[in-house]
Structures are given as C-alpha cells and as structure tokens.
Write a structure and sequence with these properties.
Strand order of the largest sheet: 1-7-6
Radius of gyration: 14 Å
Distance between the termini: 13 Å
Number of strands: 7
Structural class: mainly beta
Strand content: 35-45%
Helix content: under 10%
Order of helices and strands: EEEEEEEH
Largest sheet: 3 strands, mixed
Number of helices: 1
Amino acid sequence: DCLLVPTDTPITFRATSPDVIHGFLIVGTNINTMLVPGYVANVRTRFSTPGEHLMPCHEFCGVGHEGMWARVKVIDKAEFTKLSAGKRRVSCAD
C-alpha cells in the first residue's frame, strides 16, 4: 500500500515480477522501469522534499491491473528517525 521513506537519504528500490512484465513508476520523479520475470530491477534515488507520490503499474499486466498501485510517502529525515526509533519497521499508518 505505502512505503515510508526519509528525505535526503539514499534509497534503493529492488523489485521483480514472478509472472508477467509490470511497470514500476513513481509519479513526479524520474523513476520509471520495467519489472521483468527472472530479473531484479535496482533503482537508486534520493528524495529531497517531503510529499506523497503515486506508484502505479503502468504496463498492462492482466486481470487486476487497475488495482496495482501504491504510494511512496516521503517525510523529513528527523521525523523518520524519531518515528523509527526502537522499531524494526515503520509504516504510513504509524
């Protein structure tokens, strides 16, 4: 559903597909790649400002394609550090 990431921090997205080709796009950024079965896509980035970005599958992949989307929520690095203190995972729901 949602990935929570800090500003001004190197982020690596690693993604693949178990079935068909999918599109990996983060709206408002230069991140745009294809997820091909059998290969791992590595996309490195750094978000400089807080905000939310839609992350849809932009390659028609079959039944349910229209429901394949998520969000990337970028928050201030200090806020992320405070939120993640003592936790193994953080989420947009925290």
